[in-house]
């Protein structure tokens, strides 16, 4: 294949991630703690809505409950209820029923309502720890934590200001950007501990003045039983039939939010190039919102019906839709957020083509195919390379997830963060390097 500017095949000789060398703290006992905690989570979003940060909240809560802790989640009035979780919603706002994705002017009064509900639940629930998701959750949780004299843990999933810029909610170098950067720095000082989900997030926090002693990196994880390619053989056949994809066809799959900062338009442009060169190729772009709008961008494809938009996919159906793929893509342009979809792709043993960002390099650990953000030619070249040699990497991608990124591993790290926030620092020692295993890039 001719070398295309902007595309590079990731090397297994990639230097080890700095995450692998960050000191972590562990109880001197062989088990983390026999104590079962009450954890009040603050989720300033329309939980549950089948994407990104919602999946992290859901999996964290499930894994904590499986270890005997009690978890209560305070969230907005709208969203899907989940019977296995204790979800408490803020007062109903009858004129707003749709899920709020990303920055929105509605969030100002939604967060006020959520603060009132969080305070009410905190008084009734009597939590040991308050766990705030996203910056708004850390601000609400921080005020409630001060009132109740409880520790706050902040689940940092990206810069508040950079997210607003990515969504076009504020302009660069404007007064509102300066205001939100100051607010973001204020919120970052509230918690006892901040847990970013990527080393890029950790580096951002360090650059903005957060001390390293208050940062504990906890990557996203995967339910490796749910996302298991060996359990999806029947689903692969049936989903392909539902979508009208021949069994012998090759499929490129994307599953996540649809938005320009996610690279959706770039993916459509790359699909146009790929389909023109390969008559046996289909591209499935699954997710929401705006599926109809993006589908309209794909009406002039060289071969009609080869780019499919199934729309919103419930989380429980995510392994089934991924099972139809031969290659998975993550063209996200934003460099400040984590990229949780990579973990699901890898758990399903799918060769991955992703934008070349520090976060993606860290997650892939030398596997996968990295391309320049926003470059459709490079994305198409990466997909073609992955289709040629992807079978070599399938087992390695799956094994990396099983070894380092299952929720059985990740949840222990979060427990340690809780216990550090609750216990005197003298009761902790450095975690031995061999227990549990940490991810490295080779």
Alpha carbon gap, first and last residue? 26 Å
Number of beta-strand segments = 15
Number of helices: 14
Specify the helix fraction band. 25-40%
Strand content: 15-25%
Which class do the helix and strand fractions yield? alpha/beta
Largest sheet: 7 strands, mixed
Mean pLDDT: 86
What is the CA-based Rg, rounded?
22 Å
What's the overall geometry? globular
Please describe what this structure looks like.
This protein is of the alpha/beta class. Helix content is 40%, strand content 15%. It has 14 helices and 15 strands. It has helices at residues 52-66, 107-125, 134-148, 160-166, 175-188, 199-207, 233-243, 264-277, 291-297, 318-323, 341-347, 358-364, 376-404, 407-422, and strands at 7-9, 25-27, 38-43, 70-75, 86-89, 129-133, 152-156, 193-196, 250-255, 281-286, 307-311, 327-330, 352-355, 369-371, 428-430. The strands form 3 sheets. It has a 7-stranded mixed β-sheet with strand order 1-14-13-12-9-10-11, sandwiched between helices. Helix 3 links the parallel strand 6 and strand 7. Helix 1 (52-66) packs across helix 14 (407-422), helix 2 packs parallel to helix 3 (134-148) and helix 8 packs across helix 13 (376-404). It is globular, with a radius of gyration of 22 Å. The two termini are 26 Å apart. Residues 13-31 and 425-442 have low confidence and may be disordered.
